[in-house]
């Protein structure tokens, strides 16, 4: 019986912590796009990102002597 005095408040605190974590994840956009990351993994896009193209040297340009 004495263990209930510990377990009931502990379970209430645990439910509160889980609710706060769930609320934070919904507010921060974790559940906005559930299918997009799965499609991005299997998409066949071989072009590098725009910032990588800007930093890459031009293959047709000769190096300075």
TrEMBL record:
Record InterPro entries: Cyt_oxidase_maturation_cbb3
Transmembrane segments: 6-26
Compositional bias of kind Basic and acidic residues: 52-65
Keyword terms, alphabetized: Membrane, Transmembrane, Transmembrane helix
Annotated region described as Disordered, given as residue ranges: 37-65
Protein name listed in UniProt: Cytochrome oxidase maturation protein, cbb3-type
Species of origin: Zoogloea ramigera
């Amino acid at each position: 019986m004495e263990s209930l005095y510990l377990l009931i408040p502990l379970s209430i605190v645990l439910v509160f912590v889980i609710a706060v974590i769930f609320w934070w994840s919904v507010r921060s956009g974790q559940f906005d796009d559930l299918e997009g990351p799965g499609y991005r993994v299997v998409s066949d896009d071989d072009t590098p990102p725009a910032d990588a193209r800007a930093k890459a040297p031009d293959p047709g340009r000769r190096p300075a002597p």
